[in-house]
Amino acid sequence: MTKTLKGFPQNFLWGGATAANQLEGAFDVDGKGLSSADMIAYVPKAERKNDHAIEISSERLEDILAGKVNARFPKREGVDFYHRYKEDIALFAEMGFKVFRMSIHWSRIFPNGYDAEPNEAGLQFYDNVFDELRKYGIEPLVTLSHYETPLGLTQKYNGWLGREVVDHYVKYAETVFTRYKDKVKYWMTFNEINMLLHLPFLGAGLVFQEGENVKQIQYQAAHHQLVASALAVKACHEIIPDAKIGCMLAAGSFYPYTCNPEDVYQGMEKDRESYFFIDVQSRGEYPGYAKRFFKDHGLNIEMESGDAAILKDHTVDYIGFSYYSSRTTSTDPEVVKNMTSGNVFGSVANPYLDKSEWGWTIDPKGFRITANQLHDRYQKPLFVVENGFGANDVVSPEGEVNDDYRIDYLKRHIAEMGEALQDGVEIIGYTSWGPIDIVSASSGEMKKRYGYIYVDRDNEGNGSLKRIKKKSFHWYKNVIHSDGENLGE
C-alpha cells in the first residue's frame, strides 16, 4: 500500500543542503585563502576520543601551519564540486529540486577575511553556480557563514572574539548581496549559530590558551556574531528589498528523562542554551534568562552603545533549522553514565528510541515536536534546512546502492513534517542534508554518508569521485514530483 499525505503546498521548496567547506574542495585554487575548516585533520575512528569535530588549540594550529602535523585535511579536498558543479546540479535538477541550499566560502571572496578588495575569481565562481541553478529553475538558498571563518581572522583577532570581525563580515555580506542581488532571494546569516558553544573553532574560529575563561570568550564572540547577523539583515533588506534572510538553529528538543521537576527544569535550561541565539535574532533583545546566566557565571559581555538598537531593529524574516535527532537529559548521576556516543550536545540514551551507527537517536515524532515549539515560540515562518541520515553505504557488485534505511528515516520524518503543517506550522521548504555525499562536518569522514548520490571516495582520500545514483535518489525524485503526497511503501 502506498502511503499518501496531504498538506504540502504546491509552492513548497523541496531540495537539498550542503556547505562549501565540505563540498567544494579546491582550497588553494583561484586565490582562495585558508579557513578554519581547512585546519580540521582526519583522525581515524580508533584514534578519536569521540565522533565530534576535532577542536583546535592555539598550539595545534601553530603546528599545523608549521607543517608539523602529518595528516590529511579532507575538507580541503571536499568532493570537487568546484570543478564538477555542472554535473552535480544536473543531478539535483533530475530529482526535481526547487531549491539548493549552499554556502559561500568567505575566504574565497576575502582570502584573509580583512582584505581591502574582494577576490574576483571567487565571485565569478558563484556567479557561475547561480547561473547553472537558474538554468534548471532551482532557487539558491545561501548561507553566508557555514562553519568557516577565514584563518586570517583567527590569526589577527582570535576569530569572532575580535569586535573588528563584525565590520569585516558586514563588508563581505554587502559585497555578495550587491553582486548577487538579481540571483539570490533566500539568505541565512550563520549556520547553526548555537554550535559556537560546542565547537567554537568550527563555529567561530576561536582558539584558547590554557587557563582562559572559555565561557566569557564564547559569549563575547556570540554577541559579535549576533550584532553582525543583525547588520547583515539590515544590509540585505536595503540592497535586495524583495529578499528573505533568516537565522539558523541546530535544533532538537531536550526531553526530561523522568517527570522529576529537576529533570524537567534541566531540559528547559538546555533548550534555552540554544534558543538564546534565536531569541535575540528573532525577537531583537537579550532574554532575561540569559542576563541571569551571565550574572550567575560572572560573565561581562562588552556591548557598544548602539548594539541594542541594532539587534532590535533588524530581526530575521524566518527561522531556519536543522533537525537530526532529539536529546534527553537527566540529573541522576547513574542515568548520565549512559550517554550516547555521537551527539555533539550530549544526551543520555532514550530507551524508547533507536540509534544510528554514529549514535544519533532516530526520532521522527521529535521533528514534529521541534517544529511546533519553534513556531509557537517565534510565530515566524520556518525553513527546514537540514535533516538526514548518516550511514555507511556500500556499492553492490552490480554498482547499486540500496539505502532503504535512509528512505525509511526520511519518509518518517517528512510524514511528521506534513503533520506539523497540518498543525498550523508555516514551513517554507525542506532541504535534506546532504543530497550528495560530502565530507562529514563532525568527523571528517567520507564513510558517514547522507546523500542520494554516492561519491566514490573513502576516508583515506582514495577513489575516482564518480557519482552514482542511490535507490533514495529515485525515491526522493518521486516525493518531490508528488509534492510530498507519495512517500512510497
Characterization of the model:
The structure is a single chain. It is built from 16 helices and 14 strands. With 489 residues, the chain is α/β, with parallel strands linked by helices. The chain has one domain (13-481): Glycosidases (TIM Barrel), CATH 3.20.20. β11 (382-386), α15 and β12 (427-433) form a beta-alpha-beta unit. It is globular. The mean pLDDT is 93.
Task: Please tally the helical runs, counting DSSP H or I stretches of 4 or more residues.
Answer: 16
The proportion of strand residues reads 5-15%
The fourth-level CATH homologous superfamily is Glycosidases
Order of helices and strands: EHHHEHHEHHEHHEEHHHEEHEEHEHEEEH
- Give the structural class: alpha/beta
Q: Roughly what percent helix?
A: 25-40%
Give the beta-strand count: 14
- First CA to last CA: what distance? 6 Å
Low-confidence stretches: none
General form: globular
What is the CATH C level class, in words? Answer: Alpha Beta
Organism: Paenibacillus jamilae
Protein name: 6-phospho-beta-glucosidase
A few lines on this structure:
The protein has 489 residues and is α/β, with parallel strands linked by helices.
Keywords:
single chain, 489 residues, alpha/beta, TIM Barrel, 8-stranded parallel β-barrel, two-stranded parallel ribbon, globular
Map the helices and strands:
Blueprint: E1 13-17, H1 20-23, H2 58-65, H3 81-95, E2 99-103, H4 106-109, H5 120-135, E3 139-145, H6 151-157, H7 164-179, E4 186-190, H8 200-204, H9 214-239, E5 244-251, E6 254-256, H10 261-283, H11 288-296, H12 307-313, E7 318-323, E8 327-329, H13 333-336, E9 354-355, E10 361-362, H14 364-378, E11 382-386, H15 404-422, E12 427-433, E13 453-455, E14 467-469, H16 471-481
Helix pairs in contact: 3-5, 7-9, 9-12, 14-15
